[in-house]
Amino acid sequence: MTTAAETIAVGRPRTTSERIVAFISRTPVHIALIALAVIWLVPTVGLAVTSFRPRPDIASSGWWTSFADFDYTLKNYDLVLNANKMAPSFLNSALIAIPSTLLPLFIGALAAYAFSWIKFPFRDTIFLLLVALMVVPIQAALVPVLILLQDLGEVLTGQQDLITGWYWGIWLSHTVFALPFCIFLLRNFFIALPRDLIEAARVDGATNFGIFFKVVLPLSVPALASFAIFQFLWVWNDLLMALVFIQESDLWPMTIRISQLLSTYGTEYHLLSAGAFLLMTVPLIVFFALQRYFVQGLLAGSVK
Amino acid sequence: VSSGTVAPGSVVARPPRRRLPPLRGFSQALPFLAPALILVGAFLIVPVVWTVLLSINRTRGLNFGEEWIWFDNYERLLTRDSRFLDTDEFPWAGAVINNLRWVIFYTGLCLLLGLVTAVLATRVNYERAFKAIIFVPMAISATAVAIIWLLVYSPDQQIGVLNALIGALGGNPVSWTGRRDTVNYAIIVAYVWASTGFVMVVLSAALKGISQEVIEAARTDGATEWDIFRRIQLPLLSLPISVVAVWLIINVIKIFDIVYIMTKGGPGGASRVIGYSYYVETFENGKGGYGAAVAVIMLLLIIPIMAFNIRRFRSEAIQG
Predict the structure, then answer these.
(1) What ipTM does the predicted assembly reach?
(2) Model confidence, pTM
(3) Are A255 and A239 in contact (CB under 8 A)?
(4) What is the chain A residue with the closest CA to B164?
């Protein structure tokens, strides 16, 4: 037998009794991990359970006692979706998040292609300057962007709030703030694509646009997906930009709607828990369906 | 996991050169670059300069006024605004001090818990499930995290699980988010809960990169689990730990959502942070210039931290 196999055999017990011994010797580890897992789950479970309990029950007994009588209802969801307008806000969140993801993805991919596969003067300097803009906190640009958008709306249409009174303002600002990171991420992916493939397409007479659409984009699906998921969740979960750029209450996304529920009614947990749980559904679905890309996007986003 | 992640050193990696006359290169690149450069120029670079100018101007609402007041806003923020920075008596207080609290406790707890979970999880066969449980809160909006934890912290022992637990052990309920001395730590714990998964995933990915043979060899040589952690794993984790620490600190400087929802900076301004001061001064008090000064301070705090990170990347890349 090779030494490698022996060393592995030492570390990884093969027989059942060895496994049991190994399991027991790690009891403290198991206890610590299970305790951590429970602590991590309790807050979310509490919210989920509360959202299905009748309002009087929430005030009179803890959610952890509710498993005994098993008295659950969908009434909170009915209230929050309809009477408190969470249903249109759900739609608004999607209407804000989808274009705010696709726009920077497309514009950023175009620029990233130029930075990776077209040679032009000062290319790396311009790229580094663009990447350096990732440090800018959105607070350092919010007010001027707001005023610029209002002025732009006035010039284009004569109405001051046309751009900030609809989704244009938030689409545009999310796009702009995402671009440096998007270009950085995609350029680093594009540049690692096999050079021969792109040169071969050039020799065959493909234009840059042809290479971009037919060679680079199809090969870059993992990077595009990572950015798209990261950006979609970023926008879906955003509160600050929405507070600034969505002034029309009919257009409010769910994050603002929940904040309004809290300041209007105080801690009415039957509404808040159902609202917060609705807000969480989409990220949770995205997380469980696309876990791999999601983690990748977050890891990549750690430089943001 | 495929190659979608970013190689840290590759910012300056150059692709093979293709000889093109400069002007032709520009004209070819222009259609690809123009949308991004126009948007970033008009709505990011111009606004940052604009914000700097606003901060030294006696603004009228969010617009420029006629008088330039230079550093008056900064001076007032740092010396005469007790909600921003109060150094009159010990202990110091205000948004800046709260942010410092965040840097110490949020960053420290996230790193500690992320490291513990990453290292321990590799030793059991339900690693994936455990990591998913710790990681899920990362996907949740800060708004929802705030509601989740308001429920946990509720002073009513029939509602809040934390106070119910204290009650069961014979203690009196504590208004965690209603007391000046607990409110910051209450919000910090909620956000640690949401961010630990990120730290765990990054450190866990780094741990996976450490050769299993080295660890097994150390074990056969009689190294204890602690030796393995202390002598093999921890040294190799120092770069990812410092990268994550920088990410957490930058996050802390920008923190806003969770404070806004959980406490609105209260009670009595006790949980204000820099990002919250920016929002209140600019959009609730309508003091564009004063808020702009807060934003510039945020920018000035972030730049050196980010520069440190890039330097660190470079030096590690050179050392190999």
Answers:
(1) 0.89
(2) 0.89
(3) yes
(4) A62
